[in-house]
Amino acid sequence: MNPAPGRVVLLHPTAGTRDAVAAAPAHPVPPSYQQETYLRRAFALHSDGKRAARWFVGKFDVPGPIEARSFAAAIERFAARHAELRSGFRATGDQIERYVVDAQDVRFDSSESGMVTDPAELLAALVDHFGDAAEPVVWPSCAFAAISRQDRSTVFIAFDHIHIDRYTVALALDEIRAMYLANVDGRDLPLPRARDFLEFCAAERRASADPANSAELHEVAAQWRNFVKAGGDALPRFPLDVGSEPDTSYPMTYDDFCELDAETTDSFERLCRRHGGNLYSGLLAALGLAANRVAGQSVFRAMEPRQVRRDPAEHAFGWYASTSFVMFDVIDKIDGFGSGFRETLAAARAATRAAGTRMDVPFDRVVRELVPPFESDRSFWVNYIDNTRLPGSEHFAEWDVCFVTNERRGDTVDFYLLRTHAGLTVRVRYPATGIAGDVIASYVDTVTGVITEASG
């Protein structure tokens, strides 16, 4: 992210809003199980003087200079629509309680700098703003900024993970952009009713407390135990050695290692559907066959985050996601990888269906049944995100939309399989070890080769 020169406009909660936050009473709806796990870690780090922020930024362009009051009013209306954005959390003894600020009390002021021409200075100002405001243990756990220019301005919206998933960021970009432009033009903007994430949290707790669901909880926990046991009592790691030393944390980096155009992606998806799969299971099959080719793995195992919305395009702001896993046999044959693709696709498709059934029980509730517990973030993740189903996605190129996350440290490899209107991008997050980039590039080349062979 290298922002072009401009004037930096920052939004800040007013003094009255901060007073309302301090006085907000406890809300009866607790955090979701996933939020609770995240918050317990965050409060523990905070008590040690450390930060726990995992913020995600979305940006988009708008014509002309930024009108600060229209910008603030768009954020205020967005907050009024989505109670989760007005939520904060407090640690009270061993409990974590939610509070919700009344919509009429959420107001923002703006501050503006002079012209800033140095991209590094611009980026530092934005990152400082995001780091101060987008943290889980403070309110509002999000930050809003813009770079104002005469012809075309750029708006940045940052949220800590406590409130959002990838689909939520896209929803926010789409709604806030539309509301801002309506404010600038002085026109009304009717919007559909937003789904309340607090209702989701309450329903999740009710389902967990129902004795009728205990058998399902224990069955899912047993599946997780078998998954861990299948890996020698360990969670999956990336198939190849990326040069990371045990118990060592590295700066993490993102790179795009593969981009397939729309025609190639559509053709591969049609092939997968003809044989009873879909694009995601086809990509998993290709990952599995590639792991077999380069590392001799006959079983493919990966952690899988999955969103649990009824509809990704629904106006639902919140962290609607959970965790499952995929595990399937890689069926290869002597006469080439293409000949084993259909069988591996069927195994991958069965694995994704099984993963979906596990989502009925919150992962962070299941973990409490597992002894010993494990750290799910220290493993190999495969994330499939269909950007074509995100609100406003058909305009992302025109609006110069992009998604960025803050820098973190670690030693694992995460794959992001991003379906877009332009095709498919394989984005990988990995430790900066010196050799990891080349190792991953070689593996992804093998994955691409499997797709080409299967499609041929």
Which features does this protein show?
alpha+beta, Chloramphenicol Acetyltransferase, 6-stranded antiparallel sheet, 5-stranded mixed sheet
3D architecture notes:
- By secondary structure, the protein is an alpha+beta fold.
- It folds into two domains: 6-199, Chloramphenicol Acetyltransferase, CATH 3.30.559; 213-455, Nonribosomal peptide synthetase, condensation domain (Chloramphenicol Acetyltransferase, 2-Layer Sandwich), CATH 3.30.559.30.
- Helix content is 39%, strand content 25%.
- The protein has a six-stranded antiparallel sheet, with helices on both faces. Strands 12-15-16-9-14 form a five-stranded mixed sheet.
- This is Condensation domain-containing protein.
- InterPro entries: CAT-like_dom_sf, Condensation_dom.
- Residues 62-379 form the Condensation domain.
CATH architecture of the largest domain: 2-Layer Sandwich
How would you spell out the order of helices and strands? EHEHEHEEEHEEHHHEHHEEHHEHEEEEH
Largest sheet: 6 strands, antiparallel
Weakly predicted, low-confidence segments: 334-338
Structural class: alpha+beta
Q: Give the strand tally.
A: 16
The number of distinct structural domains comes to 2
Overall radius of gyration: 23 Å
Q: Count up the helices.
A: 13
Q: Looking at CATH, which topology of the largest domain would you report?
A: Chloramphenicol Acetyltransferase
Helix content: 25-40%
Distance between the termini: 38 Å
Beta-strand percent range = 25-35%
